Every structure is written in structure tokens, then in C-alpha cells.
């Protein structure tokens, strides 16, 4: 584990990264940063609007920029977007920051959760279910490769996931690999 000891949440849309990040913030007292929130605040519009007005590349640039600007030595709860791990530079920054936790889950459950708010620009397609499945297939190996460990969120509340994350991190600290 990294000495900076930030907790980095990665995973697909609908995994509950933002909500679990809020629980982790409450439990640990650490500051939470959410890259989507940083980007939306910078542009002063929603993530969907950034995608439609400026395009995905501009969003990805802003995502990397937000990561580059993270406080280097302060332990933080870092909540990422589902596609953050697509860029090797982002992965390097996250690895340096601390422990990377993959929030995973059953595909159907994640799709149901991700579709709920209708706010995912990447799912504004003819067949969102198929798009979801294709993206997930492509990204799964990346999450797997990058994560220090994973938590299956399918049957857990956000609070339970946060507790599971903290238990695992404690376990890692006591029995380093
Ligand atoms: C994205 C996921 C979104 C957001 C953007 C792109 C992705 O975040 O960053 O719409 O590429 O999977 P969530 O994972 O919080 O939905």
C-alpha cells in the first residue's frame, strides 16, 4: 500500500462510488474529492452537458487535469468516474495516491442503478443496455488489473460497502502483501 494512504474508488457506472465515497468521508473524517464534481464545477454545467457541448475528449482532458491537481501528500477519499482508468496517466496518479478499490457488481444490478437518474451521457444511445454491456466487457479487465482489491456491491447498501472497504484496508495494513 502507498504511504499517502488515500482511498481511491474505481468501478463502472452504477457501482455506487459517489455514495460510498460520502460514507467513507463520514467514517474516516478524510476529505473527499470526486472528479466528476470537480469537472462539473469547473465548467459550471452538468457532465451530460459537457459531453454534448464539448465532447468526450474535452471531458477526459478535464478528468486528467483534476487528477493532476489532487493534493499530493494528503490522504483523501478519491472518487473517480467509470472511465478514469482508461488513461494510463490517470492510473499512475491513482496508484501513487493510495489504495485502489474496485466497486464491482452484477451487470444487471449496475445497469438498473446507472439508468435510474438518466444522467449518464454514454448511455444516451439507441440501445443503452447493449452499450452498457459492451463498455463493461471492455473495462472489466482494466479495473481488475488496476485494483488492490474489490468489493462486490450487488447485495450491499452503500454504508455496508464503505464498512467492507475499511475492514479490507485494515486487514491489508495488518497483513501487507
Ligand atoms: C463515465 C462515467 C461517469 C462520468 C462520465 C463518464 C464513464 O461517472 O464520469 O459520464 O466513462 O463510465 P460515474 O461512473 O459516476 O457514472
Report on the structure:
The chain has 8 helices and 5 strands, in the order βαβαααβαβααβα. α2 packs across α4 and α3 crosses α4. The N and C termini lie close together (9 Å). The protein has 177 residues and is an alpha/beta fold. It has a single domain, classed as Rossmann fold (3-Layer(aba) Sandwich), CATH 3.40.50. Helix content is 55%, strand content 14%. The model has no long low-confidence stretch (mean pLDDT 94). Strands 2-3-1-4-5 form a 5-stranded parallel β-sheet, sandwiched between helices. The protein is globular. The site of shikimate-3-phosphate (S3P) has 11 residues, from α1. The site of shikimate-3-phosphate has 11 residues, from α1.
Task: Summarize it.
The protein has eight helices and five strands; from the N terminus they run E-H-E-H-H-H-E-H-E-H-H-E-H.
Count of individual beta strands: 5
Compute the number of structural domains.
Answer: 1
How big a fraction of the residues is strand? 5-15%
Largest beta sheet: strand ordering:
2-3-1-4-5
Overall pLDDT, averaged? 94
The rounded Rg comes to 15 Å
The CATH architecture classification is 3-Layer(aba) Sandwich
Q: Structural class, please?
A: alpha/beta
What is the CATH superfamily label? P-loop containing nucleotide triphosphate hydrolases
Largest sheet: 5 strands, parallel
Helix tally?
8
Shape: globular
Amino acid at each position: 500500500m502507498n504511504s499517502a494512504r488515500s482511498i481511491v474508488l474505481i468501478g463502472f457506472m452504477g457501482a455506487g462510488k459517489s455514495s460510498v465515497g460520502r460514507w467513507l468521508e463520514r467514517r474516516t473524517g478524510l476529505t473527499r474529492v470526486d472528479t466528476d464534481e470537480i469537472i462539473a464545477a469547473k465548467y459550471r454545467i452538468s457532465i451530460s452537458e459537457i459531453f454534448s457541448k464539448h465532447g468526450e475528449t474535452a471531458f477526459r482532458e478535464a478528468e486528467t487535469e483534476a487528477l493532476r491537481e489532487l493534493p499530493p501528500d494528503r490522504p483523501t477519499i478519491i472518487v473517480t468516474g467509470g472511465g478514469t482508468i482508461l488513461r494510463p496517466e490517470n492510473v499512475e496518479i491513482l496508484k501513487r495516491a493510495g489504495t485502489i478499490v474496485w466497486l464491482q457488481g452484477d451487470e444487471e444490478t449496475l445497469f438498473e442503478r446507472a439508468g435510474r437518474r438518466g444522467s449518464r451521457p454514454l448511455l444516451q444511445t439507441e440501445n443503452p443496455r447493449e452499450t452498457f454491456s459492451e463498455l463493461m466487457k471492455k473495462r472489466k479487465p482494466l479495473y481488475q488489473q488496476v485494483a488492490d482489491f474489490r468489493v462486490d456491491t450487488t447485495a450491499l447498501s452503500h454504508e455496508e460497502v464503505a464498512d467492507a472497504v475499511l475492514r479490507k484496508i485494515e486487514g491489508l495494513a495488518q497483513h501487507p502483501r
